[in-house]
From TrEMBL:
Lineage of producing organism: Bacteria, Bacillati, Bacillota, Bacilli, Bacillales
Coiled coil: none
Protein name stated in the entry: STAS domain-containing protein
Database matches in Gene3D superfamilies: Histidine kinase N-terminal domain, STAS domain
Entry keyword Nuclease: no
Record domain STAS: where: 166-277
Keywords for the protein's UniProt record, in alphabetical order: Phosphoprotein
Highest rank taxon of the organism: Bacteria
Keyword presence, Phosphoprotein: yes
Length: 287
């Protein structure tokens, strides 16, 4: 590493905070963006801290030993990707901010060139340009990759939660559980119920599941068939199923499909089914 390389490195390291301060002044008013000029002080503080790390990381690319750059880059990517996923900041918005950071950074390089115009050669300029631009490019690429990975994990977790809430199996004692279904059940939701419920029953060791349909507004032929298949699957797993809350229109749909529910206990209400199994005490005995 030449003396001039070290001079540029030292010049930029000494001005890392100044570069960040100038970058912050470039912000515009953008509704709902963390990069907006009217963002709160806390947001501005961590943006400044992260931009300082950006500047330090890019500057470390000028060193001959690339381990420092790789270490800083890894830290920057992890910190910024996690932060932007948390704030739901879209990738294009982040890349635009990084592009603005690159422009400001180059202004400081240009100021160094003006001060040292007699010493800087075209070869120096080309070498620095390649290193600095490559460093910014690597930050953009690896940030995008890390962001997509974190966002996919986040969406997957949310999807799993939605699936679980779509088919909430509630354990009411050591062996009995209730699946209270509420609202419309379309084909997609019926499929999720069919996929998730047997797994959930196995996980929490349920041997008898009450499937309550009293809160279901509409069930079409496809959904009725899925519920029938669910009871059959549970039976193969050794889990007895009881269907409660069957209304006349649901019963008619089952008959039209020639679905044989004769081997499955059915009740007009969940309360009646639980009374028959002595899981609750009838109101008369309470009195």
């Amino acid at each position: 590493m030449s003396d001039l390389d070290m001079e540029l490195y030292g010049y930029l390291v000494d001005r890392i905070e100044s570069i960040s301060n100038e970058w912050l002044t470039q912000r515009r008013k953008e509704h709902g963006s963390i990069y907006s000029v009217d963002a709160d002080k806390e947001t501005e503080a961590y943006l400044k801290e992260q931009n300082q790390l950006t500047n330090l990381t890019v500057t470390s690319s000028l060193l001959e030993d690339k381990r420092e750059f790789e270490k800083n880059k890894e830290k920057w990517v992890r910190l910024v990707a996690k932060s932007r996923v948390s704030s739901n900041t879209p990738i294009p918005e982040v890349l635009e901010a990084l592009s603005n950071a690159r422009k400001v950074y180059w202004r400081f390089v240009e100021r160094f060139l003006e001060i040292n115009s007699e010493k800087v050669t075209q070869e120096n300029l080309l070498k620095w340009g390649m290193k600095i631009n490559r460093a910014f490019d690597e930050l953009a690429i690896e940030f995008s990759q890390a962001y997509n990975l974190l966002m996919n994990n986040k969406l997957s977790a949310q999807s799993s939660l939605i699936d679980e809430l779509s088919a909430p199996v509630i354990k009411i004692n050591e062996v009995f559980g209730v699946l209270p279904l509420v609202g419309d059940i379309d084909t997609w939701r019926a499929k999720k119920i069919y996929e998730c419920v047997p797994v959930k029953c196995t996980e929490i060791n349920i041997s008898h599941l009450y499937i309550d349909l009293s809160g279901v507004s509409i069930i079409d032929t496809m959904v009725a068939h899925q519920i029938y298949q669910l009871s059959q699957t549970l039976d193969l797993l050794g889990v007895k199923s009881t269907i409660t809350g069957i209304r006349p229109e649901i019963a008619q749909t089952a008959i039209q499909l020639a679905l044989d529910f004769s081997k499955i206990d059915t009740y007009s209400s969940l309360q009646q089914a639980l009374k028959d199994k002595f899981l609750i005490v009838a109101e008369q005995s309470v009195k």
